[in-house]
Amino acid sequence: MSLTTDSPLLVAQLASLAARILATLPAAARNDALSAIYLALSAAKDKILAANARDMEAAARSVENGELSLSVLKRLDLGRKGKWEDMLKGILDVQELEDPVGKVSLRTRLDTGLDLERVTCPIGTLLIIFEARPEVIANIASLAIKSGNAAILKGGKESTESFVAISTVISEALAGTQVPNASIQLLTSRSSIPELLSLEKLIDLVIPRGSNELVRYIKHNTRIPVLGHADGLCSIYIHETADAEVAKRILQDAKTGYPAACNAVETLLVDEAAVETVLPVVAESLMSSGVSLRCDARSKSGLTTKLPKNLSVLLQDATEKDYETEFLDLILAVKTIPTVPGEPGVEAAIEHINAHSSHHTDAILARDRDIAERFMKAVDSAGVFWNTSTRMSDGMRFGFGTEVGISTNKIHARGPVGLEGLTTYKYLLRGEGQIAGEYGAGGREWKHERLPL
Amino acid sequence: MSLTTDSPLLVAQLASLAARILATLPAAARNDALSAIYLALSAAKDKILAANARDMEAAARSVENGELSLSVLKRLDLGRKGKWEDMLKGILDVQELEDPVGKVSLRTRLDTGLDLERVTCPIGTLLIIFEARPEVIANIASLAIKSGNAAILKGGKESTESFVAISTVISEALAGTQVPNASIQLLTSRSSIPELLSLEKLIDLVIPRGSNELVRYIKHNTRIPVLGHADGLCSIYIHETADAEVAKRILQDAKTGYPAACNAVETLLVDEAAVETVLPVVAESLMSSGVSLRCDARSKSGLTTKLPKNLSVLLQDATEKDYETEFLDLILAVKTIPTVPGEPGVEAAIEHINAHSSHHTDAILARDRDIAERFMKAVDSAGVFWNTSTRMSDGMRFGFGTEVGISTNKIHARGPVGLEGLTTYKYLLRGEGQIAGEYGAGGREWKHERLPL
What we know:
Two copies of one chain form a homodimer. The first copy, chain A, is an alpha/beta fold. Chain A is built from 14 helices and 17 strands. Chain A has two domains: 8-99 and 122-219, 3-Layer(aba) Sandwich (Aldehyde Dehydrogenase, Chain A, domain 1); 234-392, Aldehyde Dehydrogenase, Chain A, domain 2, CATH 3.40.309.10. Helices cover 37% and strands 19% of the residues of chain A. In chain A, α2 packs across α7, α3 runs antiparallel to α4 and α10 packs parallel to α11 (278-288). In chain A, the strands form four sheets. A seven-stranded parallel β-sheet of chain A has the order 10-9-11-8-7-12-13, sandwiched between helices. Chain A has helices spanning 8-22, 27-43, 45-64, 70-76, 83-96, 136-146, 160-175, 192-198, 212-219, 244-256, 278-288, 297-304, 345-356, 369-378; strands at residues 104-111, 114-122, 125-130, 150-154, 184-187, 205-209, 234-238, 265-271, 292-295, 315-317, 331-337, 361-365, 383-386, 405-407, 415-417, 423-430, 449-450. Chain A is globular. At the A-B interface, β2, α10, α14, β13 and β16 of A face β2, α10, α14, β13 and β16 of B. Chains A, B: Its EC number is 1.2.1.41. Chains A, B: It holds the Pfam family Aldedh. Chains A, B: Belongs to the gamma-glutamyl phosphate reductase family. Chains A, B: Keywords: Amino-acid biosynthesis, NADP, Oxidoreductase, Proline biosynthesis.
């Protein structure tokens, strides 16, 4: 890892060269590098925590001055119970994952002695831009090395001391392995971002990990593909056949489990037939947990008569804007799907979601299987769920072992992205001197025989 | 198909709505629409050829005035032997391909009664911008409908009459099917392009089919993902173990088979040890076909003594720029890989290619398998071939049935792109009321059991 230069161009050139070498290393060499990083970080615990303490001190002063929020300060703390151990365990978890490189996904015999193979390979050079959490550097370095990609890391300024300490240790550890040092490089200066984002010939993919504002800024300021999502406007639709207790339980989880998460629910759609049956059960439970409901007229009137008086302060009027807002807070927009003879409510719900959601994760609660399948087919989002919480949208929960991020792109990886999302593929064609011109009209015929993988 | 509006925004909005419907139609409904288009075009042959004749007349005048090249005029001609029949047959070929939608690529039991499925689905709305060839409209319409995507088509102005005639027929044909009319829309005005390229919320993917300039313009003027390639700078490396006759045959095919193709070879790298053995055989054959060789000093001196005098006019000096030029013509840049003890030539060849090629297709000619495998592992291109021609890089030759284009992107589809490249996927999760909060520390454990596909 190079800390000797702050020139983004030079860093990217070195990364690009390192990526070429990394791409040809066998899995064992990449895994050995992860072991080396694990051991080196374990040995350097005191030094790193001391650096982290300096970051914390500076950040505490900024909190006092009102320049920094308490939540950022909390995220900075590597000394918090279990955090250091989790960071180290994460490296070994990544090491144990299946090698994503060299997987054959297609094998075709074009002709005798002319075999085509499609095989996964690393993307090349990743640029990861993240905010305060210092443990991310170990996580990202592991993912990048495991998948054979070089990574340029730009961390938040609040955790600079921690980053430099961790990256110095990683650098020293890599020096004793086959993985080139420049595979993982750290840039600390915020002013390097615009130049990095312009290096489309050297950097293949940008992965922002942080606030919506950060992601949106990056998406609007680069031609390099960006993996991630700016918004997580998730909806849940309560169909008239939904079970009230199931709905209550799922909405509690989806709204109050972790309101600031991108997979938390922000809009609740309710069939008119359920407004006075299912909705009051859901609403009372949510409001008891402090959730404000921003309701349209029909759902509000349905709730007013059914709810205890003391909760009425949390019953508010919705504006159109509320149905396009990612609150990331204990607020939920509620909209009634009116009963119209001959027009199933599910169609109106689908239409609302396709027009308003951020295509992240949307769910239907219903007993009716056909209705649920229709919803899952027609909603155009990365995750479409039936009778479960939007919070399930997560790489760890999906069994991917780890998560690079959740993508709302429709191109390349979509939804929770594991190691697979850090690979591309290439076509290898092994021949015996065949040429294109000898096939076709009057010539040889293609065999195009699928071979086993 | 709507021809009543020329507002790009309205066209894109209609396409986006049509895409939602199209995405939920079963394969049979999409295939029926292709039958209807096939029959309608067959019946309207005379009308369409008459429109095409009007385009040809106008174009012939432009050729006379020197405003248009003869090659564009040729590409315009739908009446040319076999072209009409090929266009119609193409529709049925696409219809017969396997349905790319609804394929399950991952199935995991997260827990009892909580099954995750990853299933392919259409991308949404495609914008296809192409130049003169009028038959492309039928091809693209078929591919879009087959894959469940809506398409906005912007054709070249030289073939406007043909496009309007074909698209009117397609429109009338779709009216009698379940596929919405607005699934395929035509825009004829060139001034609509900048606005279309700005509609990133409505258009999901841009596919340019035409000159390098067109592709480069589009890549630099939109934030919508672009599928395709601007450059096709392909290389062939002759290793010292290459067979001279095989090399001669492959270079003939790769350089002279279709010099204007993106998969034609532009740079030839030759091991110094082969400069006076293999290279003269290759060079004489190429030069006899009229190919100029732009050589570095070592390869030129190696050839000078070996070649017949009458060919010497085709033996030229290379400049550095020649190794970065896509000639698309009967010109080949030749570079010697010097013999350096302890440094295998293949490494220098890999380095040259990774630094200079456009990551489209590169090949090695060698008898040595280990050397070839090393080359295929380390060269970072969409296609890396051994003992066969770069011209093999083609969706039809690869057995994909048809080809949307060849992509040099490393994100999403890479190499020749078939129908698969017009799909994305979504995660469906079917539960029985499970919530995220009940799993993890002290709670339920994930099963993460892989289910058969």
